[in-house]
Design a protein that fits this description.
13 strands, 322 residues, four-stranded parallel sheet, globular
Length: 322
């Protein structure tokens, strides 16, 4: 850890052995401190969030109506889950209709890599799908888990390269908490880092905890976020999904490398469920974790900056000990 810390604080890139050493370390506080140092260099004392809404694309008229209402309520990103039973032409129609009706500042997140590959199997080349998504810009692929088998790394990376060459920025993911060994996690991060060096198209990393019975302990979750932040030095943001990890763990993740709270934000008279937080509650969570909340737009610009934490309570954010 001493040698790794010297590398981190001098700005030197970590290698595979460093990643394995970090995952093998029992010093979670020290690991969190290093990750906190790096995220502070990138994002300062802020933690961001965005208002995103999911729009059903089955009915084009209904999709336009729902999207318009969502934008009026403050949404800057619209998630458009592909309908497996509908042809590619239908999705292209909905994309075009939405882009004509919503402002250019609203991003459309339309397809997973698996969706693009499925359309290709049905006769629409991946290039054509991505061209349509580019024309509907600003837009992006999305990081929803695939309903069927996950694409191979080679297939996934090929589609990402095609997307990035068209100017589309995309999220990348780090699945963990299932059958992965430490070496698997490190190798995955290194592949992502190499691809980002090549294309520069990833805007955010989303660590995704497996929901199965094995799962991951709290310490394993925080270690994963910290190592991801330290190894993936060329991706600007690391997001924690509070619905997937829980609100308290998400707060801790902010102090172990993450700089964004991802999840559904509701307000006013909107219905709230277990997967959503009221805007005020989310702002309080971020502030209570020791950070200054920032509501961002689709390009990670600040739409609204809130007051930071009470300086009498905590002078500056510090990694929590667990």
């Amino acid at each position: 850890m001493e040698n790794v810390e010297k590398k981190v604080r001098s700005g030197e890139r970590l290698d595979r052995e460093d990643g394995l050493a970090l995952l093998a370390s029992d010093d979670l506080a020290g690991l969190g401190g290093l990750a906190h140092h790096v995220r502070t260099l990138k994002s300062g004392d802020t933690a961001c969030f965005a208002v995103r809404r999911t729009v059903d694309v089955t009915d084009p008229d209904g999709a336009v109506r729902d999207a318009t209402e969502a934008v009026a309520a403050g949404a800057v990103e619209l998630e458009l889950p592909a309908a497996a039973e509908l042809p590619w032409e239908h999705h292209a129609q909905v994309l075009g209709a939405l882009r004509r009706q919503v402002p250019d500042t609203v991003a459309l997140h339309a397809f997973t890599v698996a969706d693009v590959l499925r359309f290709a199997e049905q006769g629409t080349p991946a290039e054509a799908v991505l061209d349509a998504l580019t024309a509907a810009g600003p837009s992006s692929l999305t990081a929803r888990p695939a309903a069927g088998p996950e694409p191979s790394w080679e297939e996934w990376a090929r589609v990402q390269r095609l997307a990035h060459r068209r100017g589309l920025t995309t999220p990348c993911t780090l699945p963990y908490g299932h059958t992965e060994e430490p070496a698997d996690l490190v190798d995955h991060l290194l592949r992502l880092r190499e691809l980002q060096d090549e294309t520069g198209g990833f805007r955010v990393l989303l660590p995704l905890r497996h929901p199965g019975p094995r799962g991951a302990t709290g310490a394993e979750i925080l270690k994963t976020f910290a190592v991801a932040r330290l190894m993936l030095d060329n991706v600007p943001h690391v997001a924690v999904d509070w619905a997937l990890h829980g609100a308290q763990t998400a707060q801790l993740a902010l102090q172990h490398g993450a700089d964004e709270m991802a999840g559904r934000v509701v307000e006013g008279d909107e219905e709230r469920d277990a997967d959503a937080l009221f805007r005020e509650d989310l702002v309080d969570l971020i502030r209570d974790a020791g950070f200054r909340p920032v509501e961002r737009d689709a390009r990670y610009g600040a739409l609204r900056t809130y007051e930071g934490p009470d300086p009498d309570r905590r002078e500056s954010p510090q990694p929590m000990r667990v």
